[in-house]
Amino acid sequence: MIKFLDLLEINKRHKEELKAAFERVLDSGWYIMGNELKTFEADFAAYCGTKHAIGVANGLDALILIIRAYKELGLFQDGDEIIVPANTYIASILAVSANNLVPVLVEPDINTYNINPALIEARITSKTKAILPVHLYGQLCDMEAINAIAQKHGLKVIEDCAQAHGAASNTKLAGNFGDAAGFSFYPGKNLGALGDAGAITTNNDKLAEALRALLNYGSEIKYKNKYKGLNSRLDELQAALLGVKLKTLDDETLTKRAIANRYLQEIKNPKVILPEVAELSAHVWHLFVIRTQNREQIQQYLTANDIQTVIHYPIPPHKQEAYKEWNNLSYPISEKIHSEALSLPLSPVLTPAEVDQVIKIVNAY
Ligand SMILES: *Cc1c(COP(=O)(O)O)cnc(C)c1O
C-alpha cells in the first residue's frame, strides 16, 4: 500500500534528535513557557522573516486569538464582518464565528482553489474589518491583489498559513504578507509537531503584546488579569520537537515540490484535472489535489491498486450542519471543488518507485 502520508516514516528520520529534545525537556524540570518556547519562537520568527512569532496551542486558536486581540485593542466589534474564502477548511471560518464576528464568504478561483480577489470588493460593506485569505493546499493567495484591496478600504489582513509554512513570493514568506498570520503544527501539516501546536506571526508590537497576554489567561503579570483570556500555550515539549523539525522543513518542501512537478508533468489523463501553480516558490504542496468528475470511482480504483487517497474536503463549510443558517446559500465554484477534489499521496518519504507507480496507475484509469 502506498500511504497517503506516512507520519511514522516522516518522524522516524528525526528519531535520535527528537529523543534528545525530549530528554532535554524532561531533565530541565520546566514544562511550560521556558527556554524551549523562547528558542523556537525566535527561530520561527527568523524563518518567516517577521518581528514576532508567538507559540499557541493549535492553529484554530492562533486565528481566534488574532481576532480576539483586535477586539481587545478596540479595532473590531461584535457583528463586524471578515471576508473569508468559501473554499477552505472550516477552522478559518470558525475563528471568525467564535469571536461573534460575521464570516462573509467569497468564491475561489477554480484553477488555484484560492480566494478570487476579483470577487472581494463586491462583498465589502461598512462593517467589513478584515480579509482572511487562506493559502489552501500550500499555495499562496494573490497577496498583491488582496493587500491592495485591504489598503484601499482600510482593512486588516489576517493570513491563514496552516497549510503554507515556507511558501514564498519575491523572497517574502507566508506569515509576512499581512498584519498577522496563524500557523498550525498539527502532525500532518508541512511543519508538524507530535501533537497539537500552533503559532502567530506579526510585525506589530502592540498586537504581539496583547496576544501574549490573551493566550495566557489574559495576564501580563502572574495573577493579574488584563483580559478575559484563554489558556492556549505552546508547551516546552512540542516547542523543542518543532525546533528539530524546523531545520529540515525547506529540504522536505523541495522534495515534495520535485514529486509534485513529476505529477504535473507525467500525469496525463483527460479524466484528471491537475492543480494550477501560479509561481513555483509560492507552493509548498501541503496537498496535491486533482479534480475529477469520477471521484468516487477513481478513489476506489486507486484503493484497489494499493494507493491511498484522501478527500480535502468532502463538504463545503456552508453546507455543514454547524452552519445551518447557510445551508441554502449557493457557492457553485466551491461546491464544484468540494465534489471533485481528490488528494494524491505526497510526502517527503515517498520513494521514486512509489511516485512512478502513482503516475502509472492514474494514467491507466
Ligand atoms: C489545520 C488547519 C487549521 C487549524 O489548525 P489546527 O492546528 O488543527 O487547529 C486552520 N486552517 C486551515 C486552513 C487548516 O488546514
Describe what you observe in this structure.
This protein has 365 residues and is an alpha/beta fold. It is 37% helix and 14% strand. It is built from twelve helices and 13 strands. A seven-stranded mixed beta sheet has the order 1-9-8-5-4-2-3, sandwiched between helices. It has a two-stranded antiparallel sheet with strand order 6-7. Helix 2 runs antiparallel to helix 8 (236-246) and helix 4 (59-72) packs across helix 7 (205-214). 47% of the residues are buried. The model has no long low-confidence stretch (mean pLDDT 98).
Question: Which helices and strands appear, and what pairs or packs with what?
Answer:
Layout: H1 7-12, H2 15-28, H3 35-48, E1 52-56, H4 59-72, E2 81-85, H5 91-97, E3 102-106, E4 128-131, H6 143-153, E5 156-160, E6 168-169, E7 172-173, E8 180-184, E9 198-202, H7 205-214, E10 219-221, E11 224-225, H8 236-246, H9 249-266, E12 288-291, H10 295-304, H11 332-340, E13 341-344, H12 352-363
Helix pairs in contact: 2-8, 3-8, 4-5, 4-7
Bound molecules: pyridoxal-5'-phosphate.
Residues 58-60, 88-89, 91-92, 134, 160, 162-163, 184, 186, 196, 198 line the site of pyridoxal-5'-phosphate.
